[in-house]
Design goal:
The complex is a heterodimer of chains A (222) and B (433). By secondary structure, chain A is of the alpha+beta class. Chain A folds into two domains: 64 residues, Arc Repressor Mutant, subunit A; 133 residues, MukE-like family, C-terminal domain (Arc Repressor Mutant, subunit A). Chain A has ten helices and eight strands. In chain A, a hairpin with a 2-residue loop joins β6 and β7. Chain B is mainly α and 433 residues long. Chain B folds into three domains: 93 residues, Orthogonal Bundle (Arc Repressor Mutant, subunit A), CATH 1.10.10.10; 173 residues, Methane Monooxygenase Hydroxylase, Chain G, domain 1 (Up-down Bundle), CATH 1.20.58.590; 81 residues, Orthogonal Bundle (Arc Repressor Mutant, subunit A). Chain B has a three-stranded antiparallel sheet. In chain B, α2 packs across α3, α6 runs antiparallel to α7 and α7 packs parallel to α9. The termini of chain B are far apart. Classes of the chains: A alpha+beta (222), B mainly alpha (433). Chains A and B meet through β3, β4, α4, α9 and β8 of A and α7, α9, α10 and β4 of B.
Chain lengths: 222, 433
């Protein structure tokens, strides 16, 4: 524990607390890229863990260098990433693991993300999954596919998984969360069940993050 | 320090569009240009004769297309192509040149320099260049202080515009060379990262460290040397100001700007490289810990294709709220009367207006044709202001009921106290008559 923070009062009195607390409550992942916030959380994690326990939230630290809050009950609201954000997030992680993404220090283009999704799922399936319909006329509408991709990327940006700047997307360390069900040697089904039980993962049925709210937040943050 | 204003590129766009300028070169054209450049420089010439040009071409063609049958025809076509693209200039025959000579254009020389010369900025070359630059600047400063006004142009301005600019250009060229080297190095690092063994990772790391050290060292030297050079430039600018030589001051400002750019290059490249360096290190750590044998990537692809839909749990973001203090206000008093009741006039007021108008219309029509305007003028003085509009409306209604209204094609407006009305001619014989 840091000498600077002897108790929770010291932590809350720090000027960085309000910003970090708000970011975590909004579902943001704070990683090594957020140098100052990450350092603050590293110094105060033992005290903040108790603080968030009171709300029924768990302050999680991943080995890859990542802090985030896991809602263990519904006392302050719980939600889940949208289906599109999940799909795009997994594609972004695959790109992140690919050595080619190091060429530009983790910056890729939207087209590359879409291309990678297409390579994994196939063009038809990609269109169907992103647009949420099997009608060919819809799935082949490039503008609609790009619109859905943009919405998913905005959601991922707000939660700290990527940084979107125009056509360019910076892949961040937080994307490793999308690897949770396939980590280790075990069967991913069992691992998924375990993650659901622990509250890290939600299976379909619960409402997604409100897309309108998402847009409003993006604008506010800009 | 003055900042040079950027020229408006739209004029250039228009010129380029008008002239349909464009470049189309393949590697064979580039080989011819490089061979020609080497020949001209090697012979110490400014231009070459057509025979020499064809000779250079044929020798080049033996390397780039050994199976070619008609080299002469190819030479004619390629030379024409280079001329059309302003890469090769045909010099007019003169008294001194019996037949036309050919020379490379500045554009061609720049292209050759880009591909052929591979000068990179090193500690040694930077030392030599900055020392020479300092000597030139100090000499220009001394000359400015000592020589007469007539000699300033030759002894101060020319060296500053030519020698100093050339030396700074030399540094900038070498910086671009180092930029290219970084690009190549990034490709090499990416290639090495493909290997899963430790040696490949170590090799990638060594490449990164090497360039980081080079850049850090160069940035340090650039900062130190540029600060020293800037001091001399400032002294030149001050002396020029004292002597009232604006042209020398402008030349000093120009050199200062170039120095700034040269210095800024170091820091910006170091920052970019540092970001890249950190990212690659993080990538190596992540891949080693997470996906050393690519099993995770494979599993994730399978999950995306065939697995169930799943989502990461997230905190539910609350809507934005304005955190203002609560102010208790009295609830507003409700208006209980219905809107319709407020709009309608009380019965006791409405009845006399309607009755009076009906009677007046009946009386007037009994005497023969009348007009709307005449009746309105008769009734208006006895009507309270609040009932005027109602009276006029009622008058129109009663006239249309009791008489036959004639509509002339052109009707004019007539002022009537505070309102304006159309005049109607009304004859007896309506529905209620």
């Amino acid at each position: 524990m840091s000498e600077r923070y002897r108790n929770l009062g010291d932590v809350i009195a720090d000027e960085r607390f309000s910003g970090v607390d708000l970011a975590l409550r909004r579902g943001r992942h704070i990683g090594l890229d957020d140098v100052e916030d990450f350092a603050f959380l590293q110094d105060t994690r033992h005290l903040l863990r108790d603080f968030y326990d009171g709300y029924g939230w768990q302050l999680e630290f991943a080995d890859e260098g990542l802090f985030f809050l896991v809602p263990l009950n519904d006392s302050l609201g719980r939600s889940q990433l949208s289906e599109n954000a999940m799909l795009v997030g997994q594609a972004c992680l695959l790109l992140h693991l690919d050595r080619a993404s190091t060429r530009d220090a983790g910056w890729v283009t939207r087209a590359q993300v879409l291309e990678h999704l297409g390579a994994v799922l196939g063009e038809e399936e990609l269109g169907a999954r992103l647009t949420g319909t099997k009608k060919r006329r819809e799935t082949r509408r490039i503008d609609l596919v790009h619109q859905k991709l943009g919405g998913a990327l905005r959601e991922l940006h707000r939660l700290g998984f990527v940084v979107v700047k125009g056509e360019r997307v910076q892949l961040r360390q937080a994307l490793v969360r999308f690897a949770d069900p396939v980590r280790g040697d075990g069967d991913w089904r069992r691992r998924l069940e375990d993650l659901v039980l622990r509250g890290y993962v939600v299976l379909p049925g619960e409402p997604d993050l409100d897309p309108e709210l998402d847009d409003a937040w993006s604008e506010a943050e800009e | 320090m003055s900042t040079p204003t950027s020229p408006d590129p739209t004029h250039l766009f228009a010129t380029l569009e008008r002239s349909e300028a464009g470049l189309s070169l393949d590697h064979k054209d580039l080989c011819v240009l490089v061979a020609l450049s080497v020949h001209i420089e090697g012979q110490g010439l400014a231009s070459v004769s057509e025979d020499a040009l064809r000779d250079v071409f044929e020798r080049t063609w033996q390397h780039v297309e050994p199976a070619a049958l008609n080299v002469r025809k190819a030479a004619t076509e390629r030379i024409e192509k280079l001329r059309n693209q302003r890469l090769l200039n045909r010099l007019a025959a003169s008294r001194y040149a019996a037949e036309s000579d050919y020379a490379l254009s500045t554009l061609a020389m720049a292209i050759v320099r880009f591909f052929h010369e591979d000068e990179r900025l090193t500690r040694e070359s930077l030392d030599v260049l900055t020392r020479t630059l300092e000597a030139e600047l100090v000499q220009a400063l001394q000359a400015l202080r000592e020589v007469s006004a007539d000699e300033v142009d030759a002894r101060v301005l020319q060296p500053m515009r030519v020698s100093v600019s050339t030396l700074l250009g030399g540094i900038a060229n070498r910086q671009q060379g180092l930029d290219r080297q970084q690009e190549e190095l990034r490709d090499e690092v990416t290639e090495r990262l493909g290997g899963t063994n430790e040696a490949a990772m170590e090799a990638a790391t060594a490449l990164l460290e090497g360039m980081t050290n080079t850049l850090a060292e160069l940035t340090q030297v650039l900062m130190r040397d540029c600060a020293r050079l800037q001091e001399v430039v400032d002294q030149i600018a001050q002396t020029a100001s004292a002597l009232d030589r604006e042209d020398v001051g402008a030349a000093a400002a120009d050199v200062g700007d170039k120095l700034h750019r040269v210095e800024g290059w170091g820091q910006s490249r170091l920052d970019t490289w540092t970001e890249y360096h950190e990212h690659v290190h993080r990538h190596i750590r992540m891949v080693v810990s997470l996906d050393p044998n690519r099993a995770l990537s494979h599993g994730l692809r399978e999950l995306m294709r065939h697995g169930p839909r799943w989502s990461l749990a997230a905190c539910k973001p609350e809507r934005w709220r304005g955190l203002r203090e609560v102010v208790h206000r009295r609830p507003p008093v409700r208006v209980r009367r219905e809107l319709r009741q407020r709009e309608e006039l009380p019965e006791e007021e409405a009845a006399p207006v309607e009755g009076r108008v009906e009677q007046a219309v009946r009386t007037a029509l009994a005497q023969g044709p009348t007009t709307y305007l005449a009746l309105a003028r008769d009734l208006l003085p006895d009507t309270p202001p609040s009932a005027r509009h109602r009276m006029l409306g009622e008058l129109a209604r009663q006239l249309s009921l009791q008489g036959i209204v004639e509509h002339p094609r052109d009707r004019s407006w007539h002022p009537l106290d505070a309102v304006e009305v159309h005049d109607w001619r009304v004859a007896p014989g309506g529905e209620d008559a």
